[in-house]
């Protein structure tokens, strides 16, 4: 019988003797990597972990700007043809060198009808190899978000895929699983050593990395821990160096413990309330829908005390907003980012003016396990609105039943969140939330919101290559949204992580973990 | 078994829509529709169920929506962790429960046995996640003696991964096994206690006492041996429920077994995994009940005669 130790050094034994290796970073999160196949999933957490092994043509810098990675430069030759120059001298972890063939094979694999992540790119007709270090992207039309999309496309090695029969992406529907689901071979700063679902993923440093490391790690051990209490306990007991994110309810406890720090900042994810724009409300069938009246929607906005939400429920850690995107996201404009002030009298006046001085009945639907304090926020919103004389019928439920319900348009007012990921661009809000729903757009606009000017902007912004003009279009759409109170943005929820003393890891608003910027000191 | 699959299948229609969680946040409706159609979720439930049964008969449990790996492989990978945990918990429950039960039966009014009985109430009434979290707080965070999560270092032998062979693996086992064993320990202790008390008042024990046999021999050779028969039955059934209810313990300790797999499948609406898990648990119960029935017949000759 063959007996071998797994390559997984979990570090527990050494740790308990007090001699933990200083430069292996042990961290934990709630979820696990769902698969190692970069094109078989659409989950940003998994993408974030895989980014340590795989790299895209362009990546996000410390300030989340797009910067060259495997491509060194690019040129728009024609509106529908972009030329990328590839980096020379890059090798994959198995020693193969990186060339244009790999880019072509990767994109073909991603555009395969079975690839789940296919939707992360759009409008690419084909990719053509010009020479070993040059590729042309042929597009179906002018496509300003090409770079944003490519920053999420990890490049795989063609020979490796051929060797392991992994040229087709894994797919649940067709029952395809491949070698690439459990193995990885990229060009990234870390090499995958082992992967065990729900137990851990271990990586060691890639000595051959083309970039100059800003980190001083020799390895990374990722160990998912589902239970919040256990994850925090594991950090406090010294079994972990970092947890990201840290549950909000535990922030104070960790901060008060010796030798740990908590870092937090507003995330890109913006929490908002969506309205029903259909003829009737579900709460009042047969009667006209009060939410169709702009004044009613504004009254609802004036009726919420955002400062109280921030201070009491979010413990001062959220950022109150008036626009549907975070400041880092293209399309953001400070002048639109003003919430309607808390003014119950104004709200009552608006309601009376609209003919609802006696109030009305409305359903409010929320998840209770998706966003930070989602249930508490909705309870508070209900209380604010009931002060205006509105009867609010609140339902909270698990996300697995909540989101399908929202999507089927079975709600009057619902809470949701949007982070504009992976593109990190305001167009994502315009296209998915604001545009009138049909087969290809308005995917998250389930309740019949329809504004002809916004639809025009959606069409023109999709192909506008002049960045300034494009951003102006986005901003115009967001201004209309605010002026008409089409949505009621609540806040940017925070992202928070906790590290032990001596560990330094920058935190990113897109909630990605980028450990190639991490250092461990003494 | 058929009933279990049907109920499970019908039930999972209501846990939510996997497509919502599988698709990208800004997926268009057309994309989501295509995914739903390709997963066969648009067909009538009877057709879906028939298709599912057809595959199960061929030994194919499908592919996990979340992990995108074969469900059968996932279960095979996770089973060792749960079985080892259950084994350790069972041994622990027997090793603690039997002596404690004997103690309580022999000295019903002693201070120690009263204490044991009081503590055993805790074992029955406090939920598992509370005891688990409490143990973590004390032994991992405050005393820093034992790991708070995971299986430690494991060794692969063939297709079986075991934590028994490494020090860190054994250490990682202690807290979850203790948590899981608490309920069974209490149960066994109470059972042994009442059986022992009954037996101690029977004629043959009194006769043995009258003959002047040493107390040790009476208590352990004569009384305990007879008191153990029902304990074996109950332990057998407990093993089944331990496997089934390890879900909470495994979640608290991030023990990578079947319970954790199931828990995450529920969160993700991973219908293939959930169905397979329920199928497996039903199978375990059926198997254990059958074994117990056979054991009865072996142990008790009267049952055999009646059947024959």
Automatic annotation (TrEMBL), chain A:
InterPro entries: Peptide/Ni-bd, SBP_5, SBP_5_dom. CDD domains: PBP2_NikA_DppA_OppA_like_2. Coiled coil: none annotated. It is found in: Periplasm. Gene3D superfamilies: Dipeptide-binding Protein, Domain 1, Dipeptide-binding Protein, Domain 3, Periplasmic binding protein-like II. Keywords: Signal, Transport. Pfam families: SBP_bac_5. It comes from the Bacteria. Its main location: periplasm. Residues 65-434 form the Solute-binding protein family domain. Residues 1-22 form the signal peptide. Belongs to the bacterial solute-binding protein 5 family. This is ABC transporter substrate-binding protein. It comes from Aureimonas populi.
């Amino acid at each position: 019988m063959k007996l071998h130790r797994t390559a997984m050094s979990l570090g527990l034994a050494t740790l308990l003797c007090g001699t933990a290796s200083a430069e292996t970073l042990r961290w934990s999160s709630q979820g696990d990597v769902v698969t190692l196949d970069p094109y078989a999933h659409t989950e940003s957490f998994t993408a974030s972990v895989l980014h340590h092994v795989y790299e895209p043509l362009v990546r996000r810098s410390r300030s989340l700007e797009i910067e060259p990675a495997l491509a060194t430069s690019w040129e728009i030759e024609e509106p529908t043809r972009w030329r990328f120059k590839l980096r020379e001298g890059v090798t994959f972890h198995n020693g193969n060198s990186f060339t244009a063939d790999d880019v072509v094979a990767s994109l073909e694999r991603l555009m395969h009808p079975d690839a789940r992540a296919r939707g992360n790119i759009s409008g690419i007709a084909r990719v053509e190899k010009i020479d070993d270090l040059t590729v042309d992207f042929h597009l179906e039309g002018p496509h300003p978000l090409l770079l944003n999309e490519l920053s999420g496309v990890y490049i795989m090695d063609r020979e490796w895929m051929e060797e392991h029969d992994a040229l087709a992406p894994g797919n649940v529907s067709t029952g395809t699983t491949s070698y690439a689901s459990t193995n990885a071979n990229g060009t990234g700063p870390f090499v995958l050593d082992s992967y065990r679902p729900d137990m851990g993923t271990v990586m060691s440093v890639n000595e051959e990395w083309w970039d100059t490391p800003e980190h001083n790690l020799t390895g990374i051990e990722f160990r998912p821990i589902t239970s919040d209490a256990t994850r925090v306990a594991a950090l406090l007991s010294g079994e972990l160096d970092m947890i990201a994110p840290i549950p909000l309810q535990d922030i104070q406890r960790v901060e008060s413990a010796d030798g740990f720090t908590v870092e937090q900042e507003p995330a890109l994810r913006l929490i908002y309330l969506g309205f029903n724009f259909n003829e009737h409300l579900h709460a009042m069938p047969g009667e006209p829908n009060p939410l169709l009246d702009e004044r009613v929607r504004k009254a609802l906005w004036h009726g919420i005390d955002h400062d109280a939400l921030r201070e009491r429920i979010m413990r001062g850690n959220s950022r109150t907003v008036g626009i549907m995107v975070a400041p880092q996201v293209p399309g953001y404009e400070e002048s639109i980012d003003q919430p309607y002030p808390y003014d119950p009298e104004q709200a009552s006046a608006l309601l009376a003016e609209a003919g609802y001085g006696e109030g009305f009945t409305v359903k409010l639907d929320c998840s209770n396990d998706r966003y930070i304090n989602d249930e508490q926020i909705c309870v508070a919103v209900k209380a604010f609105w009931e002060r205006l004389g509105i009867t609010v019928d609140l339902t909270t439920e698990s996300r697995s039943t909540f989101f399908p319900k929202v999507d089927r348009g079975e709600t009057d007012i619902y809470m949701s969140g949007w982070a504009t990921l992976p593109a990190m661009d305001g167009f994502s809000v315009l296209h998915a939330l604001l545009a009138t729903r049909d087969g290809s757009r308005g995917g998250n606009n389930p309740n019949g919101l329809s504004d002809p000017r916004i639809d025009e902007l959606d069409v023109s912004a999709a192909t506008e290559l002049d960045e300034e003009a494009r951003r102006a279009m986005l901003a115009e759409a967001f201004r209309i949204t605010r002026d008409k109170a089409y949505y009621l943005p609540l806040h940017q929820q925070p992202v928070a992580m906790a590290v032990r003393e001596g560990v330094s890891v920058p935190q990113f608003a897109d909630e990605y973990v980028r450990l190639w910027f991490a250092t461990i000191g003494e | 078994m058929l009933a279990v699959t049907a109920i499970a299948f019908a039930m999972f229609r209501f846990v939510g829509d996997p497509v919502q969680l599988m698709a990208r946040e800004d997926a268009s409706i057309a994309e989501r529709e295509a995914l739903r159609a390709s997963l066969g979720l648009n067909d009538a439930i009877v057709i879906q169920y028939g298709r599912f049964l057809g595959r199960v008969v061929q030994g194919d449990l499908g592919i996990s929506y979340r992990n995108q790996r074969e469900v059968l492989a996932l279960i095979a990978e996770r089973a060792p962790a749960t079985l080892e945990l259950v084994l350790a918990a069972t041994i622990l429950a027997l090793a603690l429960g039997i002596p404690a039960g004997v103690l309580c039966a022999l000295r019903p009014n002693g201070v120690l046995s009263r204490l044991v009985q009081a503590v055993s109430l805790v074992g029955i009434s406090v939920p598992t996640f509370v005891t688990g979290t409490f143990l973590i707080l004390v032994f991992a965070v405050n005393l820093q003696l034992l790991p708070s999560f995971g299986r430690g270092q494991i060794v692969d032998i063939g297709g079986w991964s075991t934590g028994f062979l490494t020090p860190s693996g054994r250490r990682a086992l202690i807290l979850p096994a203790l948590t899981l064993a608490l309920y069974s320990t209490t149960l066994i202790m109470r059972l042994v206690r009442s059986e022992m008390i009954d037996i101690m008042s029977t004629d043959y024990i009194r006769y043995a006492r009258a003959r002047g046999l040493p107390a040790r021999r009476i208590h352990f050779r004569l009384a305990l041996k007879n008191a153990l028969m029902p304990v074996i039955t109950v332990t057998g059934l407990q093993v089944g429920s331990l496997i089934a209810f390890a879900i909470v313990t495994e979640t608290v300790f991030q023990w990578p077994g079947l319970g954790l797999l199931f828990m995450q499948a529920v969160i993700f609406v991973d219908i293939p995994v959930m169905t397979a898990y329920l199928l497996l648990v039903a199978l375990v119960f059926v198997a254990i009940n059958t074994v117990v029935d056979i054991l009865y017949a072996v142990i008790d000759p009267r049952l055999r005669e009646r059947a024959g």
